[in-house]
Amino acid sequence: SFAGGATVDALWTVSTTGRKASRIGRTVAREPDATHDAAGIAAAHARALERVGRDIANAIRALQQEPRAR
User: On the CB side of 25, how many CA atoms lie within 13 Å of its CA?
Assistant: First the structure.
């Protein structure tokens, strides 16, 4: 059944070249399936993965704003 929607549970790490700084994160994204068919579940997964990507992009921006270690 496709009625449950999509859940993506991702652990991720962002690190920088030339710095010792890194960010470790976890994103749990749950998205409903509006149409209850294969296309709907694919769209729900796409939205959940977009949220993972946004969280990783925010971590990258935060790392870029940190001062470089000497």
Answer: 19
